[in-house]
Amino acid sequence: MTLAITADRAKAESAAIAGRLPPLLIAAERIAATVTQGVHGRRRVGSGDVFWQHRPYYPGDELKQLDWRQSAKSDKIYLRQMEWSAAQTVYLWCDLSPSMDYASRKELPTKAERSMVLLLALSSVLSRAGERVALMGDPEPPISGRAVAERLADRLQHRTQVAQRSTGDNAENERSLPPPVLLPAHAHAVMISDFLSPIDEFRGLLERFAARDVRGHLLQVLDPAEVAMPFLGRVRFRGMEREGELLMSRVESIRDQYLNKLDAHREELRTLARHAGWSFSTHATDAPGAPALLALYQWLAADKRFRA
Amino acid sequence: MMSLGGLAFVSPWLLVGLAALPVLWWLLRLTPPAPKRIPFPAIRLLFGLLPKEETPHRTPWWLILLRLAIAALLIVGLSHPLWNAAQPFPRSGPLLLVLDDGWASGPAWGERQAFGQELIAEADREKRGVILLTTAPRPNGQLRPVSLLSADQAAAQLAALQPSPWPVDRAKALELLEAADFAKDLNTVWLADGLADMKAENDRALFDGLSKRGQVTVMDDGPGAVPILLQEPELRPQGITLRAARTVAGAPQRINVRVLDRENHSLGLVTVDFKAPELTATANVDLPIELRSRASQLVLEGGQSAGSIALLDDSGGRKPIGVVTDNPTLGSQPLLGELYYIQRALAPNNEVRIGDLATLTAQPISMIILPDQTALGPDQRAILQKWVERGGMLVRFAGERLSATPDDTLVPARLRQGDRILGGALSWAQPTTLDAFPSSSPFAGLPVPKDIHVQRQVLAEPAIDLGSKTWARLADGTPLVTGAKTGQGTLVLFHVSANAEWSDLALSGLFVQMLDRLVDLAAGAPAGDVDAQKPLPPVAMLDGFGRLAGVPAGVLPISGKDLQDAKIGPQHPPGFYGESKARLALNLSGAVKTLKPLGLAAQPLTRAHTVDFKPWLLAAAFLLLIGDLLIALALRGLLVRPTVRGAAAGTAAMLFAVMLTASPQARAAEESDAQIIAATQAAHLAYVRTGAPEVDATSRAGLKGLTEVLLQRTSADVGDPVGVDLETDDLTFYPLLYWPISGSQKQPSPAAVDRLNKYLAGGGLIFFDTADQNVSGLSGSVGPGAMRLQELTQGMDIPPLVPVPADHVLTRAFYLLKDFPGRWIGGSLWVESANSRINDGVSTVVVGSNDYASAWAIDDYGQPLYPVTPGGERQREMAYRFGVNLVMYSMTGNYKSDQVHVPAILERLGQ
Fold first, then answer.
1. In terms of C-beta density within 10 A (0-12 exposed, 13-18 middle, 19 or more buried), how is residue A205 classed?
2. Inter-chain touch A247–B54, beta carbons under 8 Å
3. Which one is the CATH code of B95-214: 3.40.50.410, 3.10.20.340, 1.10.10.10, 1.10.15.40?
4. With an 8 Å Cβ cutoff, is A264 touching chain B?
5. Across residues A10-15, what is the average pLDDT?
6. Taking every annotated instance into account, which residue ranges of this chain make up the domain Aerotolerance regulator N-terminal (chain B) (predicted)?
7. Interface confidence (ipTM) of the complex
8. I need a labelling partner for B122 at 20 to 30 A (CA). Which of B138, B199, B282, B317 fits?
């Protein structure tokens, strides 16, 4: 199993990608300044750093809330009230099933590798913005701060090691779907996978999320061979999750059918995501990782509740 | 066996397999290649997809073609095709190969062996045994035992056979054949040497004996190859008469015979012409008597047999040497007497007889030695004079008696009265050594030891012809040995005594060598004086190819009496017998009384040059099979593509490496040629690359600065400086090697040290710069550079060094200099202590410590790179001037130390 190794490598690579983030942050700032600020105003009075309003003093108010300077300008005594602000928690998940451990060419990263890189890079960006990050289905509470990427990488490695020890149908990494955990209502989620498992399994999950008003983003990571089906001639295909084998005497003759079917599958996923209020994007492992990260970021920045 | 023209098949029925090729083609076409196996995560999407057309994937046509080619090659290869196949043997029994390996088979031995091997190979193909029967006796006197051998054994034994230098014995061969019990269906091939046996009926008998046992084919070298036998040469006063015999007359024939001396040096070439109808030819070898006496062998060019070489007795005979004395006891006194030294010098290799003159002149004597103590009366003198004029050689030694009688006429040159004493109590002169021998002298080429000193000598009267009579002279030009022709004989006089009184000559090995040369020069005594009963040991024997080689086992000494009509065979092969100085020749021609061609119908021996295609075809099929395997693997996706490329590249590289093994070397040679040409276009200053980048850069910049100065101010045409790596580069081309001592330089390898020593011995100059004057100048102790220098130059051939003297050539090679500043001042410059005998007194090593390269160093704009200390442009100028002097010194050596330049230098100095 190479996933344990790739978690380490992903940590290093995500650091490299996240290292390119200052310009990414600037781009994000242009879209929504509040994202970079990290802590989101709730448009009502509460604890926070941003000034919200002055309110006349009523007996019983705490004296330390008095705005002495403002009070000195007039006859009335004012309190200074701040906007209530709170950080968002983003739940991240990436697919570590065997089907992700695939690269059609030596020089390409495997899908799992690229997924983990993107996940860690995203966590790094989010933590810099002050958000809290958690792995979906992980018992650890959401974390924030500086070394989020490192800690998540450790968690990922732990998960892959657990998966390595436990084999069998119910092993966690064998599942191409996130564990059926309850996310807090109104939470954010980002799910990275190849989403090649039957769509019906997925529909239920997404509907459950939508019911709790969990919004999120689906990122489909595919190998270029899966996107383009470049094989020729007589080929015996072998599934990676015990789907069985399939002998094709002339692969080139079914290429168009395959591409149509893949497009249909993607369209179905996109529709499903739209109905649940989620968004959907795709990424091929032969493309650089940064644009995919930017897409994720743009979606998060455009999410109204991040600004709310 | 089936044959089509020149092509034959050993197993033709296998070719039927070719008919199966179309079936194979059909089968291959039908069977699709194994599919590639590809893991694919999106396989779920593939389930349920139906291909539009169901044409099965077929094997590509080129792969079918390749496999058909493999099958065809296999079938054709296994059917064992042969080109120019030999005819199969007619009888069912084994092959009997009768091989004449006597002296006459020498010239075409290789061809004979190759033909035999082809026959054996054919027998091997037909699964027959082989019997090998040779007709010449082996060194033990018997023929090779015959037995039925496997083809492999026979081939190995045949390859090991060599021709013998004696005749064949076919009668014995027949006996051997009769004794062996072979079947009567032999296939016999007789590779004959084309000569009849001594008794011609033996040939017929052997042929009949062979015919009784099967079919016989006689083969010989064909009518063109006629063995030629050089007969015993005849020695006559006019020269050597050479006779040659051949077996077949009918056409004129011209042969060349070369005359060689003992050391195989050619003395001359004689052409012998056979007239058309004649079987023998005669030629006279016309050589000057000196050369004739040296002639030792007459060799037929291109002969290659024991019959194509005629040996001559050494110098035409033995050379007894007579020493005339009237008082043998006195003369033989150990370490004092003259006879003692003469005997010790001559006796080991020569026959020395001591007696009075009358006894000696009565015997055949080739050289008479007359010591000084022997007094001769007038009549004895006359006898001796006559003896010399008849062709004898008289060797005299000087002494008190001769110096007292200057009017002695029995000397090569007139003598002055008295003798000359060198190095005595009243003499200024030192004892003199010998000069090299003149090239016309009989002693020419002998090495002259340095430690021979002559204290006394008799002097010859100066005369016009004295120079030509002088065979050896002293360093001051006076003759030491004179010699002259008198009548037919020779008179030789040693101007010193034969003992150690007058000189060290008699004590030296040179004395022995000189006397040996004189003995060589002397005419031989007439033959017939040989001690007929004395056994003569073998010295050098001829082999079957007519080459003089060592003495093989089984050769016995032969008495002189038997030498004339010895039976030549394994016990007495032709060659030289006797003592090494007086060898007697035993020639093959003495044993070959009759030289007649073999009286049997024979076919000419021509090789068929059979080519066996089987291994080649099978190898090709195997290679194609490997290619097919690779293709099949690639089609199944089991070869990763880069690996395929790598493997292909590797295979190609390997093939290239195999085919063009020499090409990298050739390229390397070209490169080094280019370097050599570049290095020799102009003289280049060179520096040793120490491996420390900053040191090397400074060296380069320094030599560049010096090169600029040289080009501006002198006529020295120097090119850009060159950095040399001591381990790899050739130093030969650089007159001067600047070697800055760097602490980080690695110790030179032994090979590099060896090269450096050769460089120094070959006239190179190394300038070591320890560059530590800034350190050692302050402390006054040995600096770090000097210590490192001692380590680095371990093993190098560096003579003792001294501080450069004030009048050394380095101070005036171009500029007149008093001191030698570099970047620092004050460091002393060390050179070899002057010793004019070695390398003209030019120092091979100069050691300085003033960091000269830094003082010379300039940058790309011609500006100095480093400041000089204590400073001033005058110091830098002086550093350049020293550099110019150094380069001049390395190029011109001690030219400026020649006194010719002194006036000009004095004038410059203003004195």
1. middle
2. no
3. 3.40.50.410
4. no
5. 66
6. 7-81
7. 0.71
8. B138
| A302 and A165 in a common domain | yes
CB-CB under 8 Å, B46 with A250: no
Would the CATH topology of B95-214 be identical to that of B346-521? Answer: yes
Distances in whole angstroms, Cα of residue A16 to Cα of each of A124, A141, A235, B110, B779:
11, 26, 38, 78, 58
Cα separation values, B204 from B174, B210, B478, Å: 10, 10, 75
Q: Is the per-residue pLDDT at B735 higher than 60?
A: yes
Q: Which of B41, B50, B53 shows the shortest C-beta gap to A226?
A: B41
3-class secondary structure, B819: coil
The answer to whether residue A173 scores a pLDDT higher than 50 is no
How would you class A215 by CB atoms within 10 Å of its CB: exposed for 0-12, middle for 13-18, buried for 19 or more? buried
Place of tokens 């101010």: B713
Beta bridge partners of B311: B297
- pLDDT grade, residue A37 (50/70/90)? very low
Of B33, B38, B57, nearest to A237 by CB-CB distance is B38
- What gap in Å lies between CA B906 and CA B911, rounded to an integer? 6
A124 in the same domain as A143: yes
pLDDT at B260 over 50: yes
Residue-wise pLDDT for A196-250, tens only, equals 888 887 888 888 888 888 888 889 999 998 888 888 877 888 888 777 888 887 7
Q: Are residues A67 and A150 in the same domain?
A: no
| Short-list B746, B792, B797, CA closest to B769 | B792
Q: Quick check: B146 and B177 in contact, CB under 8 A?
A: yes
Q: How many structural domains does chain A have?
A: 2
pLDDT tens readout for residues B530-581: 556 677 888 888 888 888 888 887 788 887 777 767 778 787 888 888 776 6
What's the CA gap between B187 and B92, in Å, rounded? 8
DSSP B302: T
Contact indicator for B557, B536 with CB cutoff of 8 Å: yes
Q: Which of A197, A231, A257 sits opposite B38 (nearest CB)?
A: A231
Give the structural domain span for A148: 3-38+88-307
Cis peptide before B870 (omega within 30 of 0): yes
CATH number of the domain within which A106 lies: 3.40.50
Q: In terms of domains, do A269 and A294 share one? A: yes
Main-chain dihedrals φ then ψ at residue B281, nearest 5 degrees: -140, 155
Q: What is residue B701's predicted lDDT score, i.e. its pLDDT?
A: 92
Fold of B346-521: Rossmann fold (3.40.50)
Cα–Cα dist B751/B598, whole Å: 63
Report chain B residues whose CB lies below 8 A from the CB of A198. 44
Q: Which of A56, A86, A116 is the last residue of a domain?
A: A86
CATH number for the domain formed by residue range(s) B673-909: 3.40.50.12140
Name every chain A residue with its beta carbon within 8 A of the beta carbon of B46: 237, 246, 248, 254, 258
Q: Which residue has the higher pLDDT, B173 or A9?
A: B173
Interface of B with A in 34-73 (CB under 8 A): 35-47, 49-57
pLDDT digits 0-9 by tens, B606-641:
766 777 888 899 999 999 999 988 888 887 766 655
| Nearest C-alpha neighbor of B351 from the set B540, B360, B311 | B360
Query: So what's the pLDDT on residue B562?
Result: 72
Gap from A307 CA to chain B (nearest CA, Å): 38
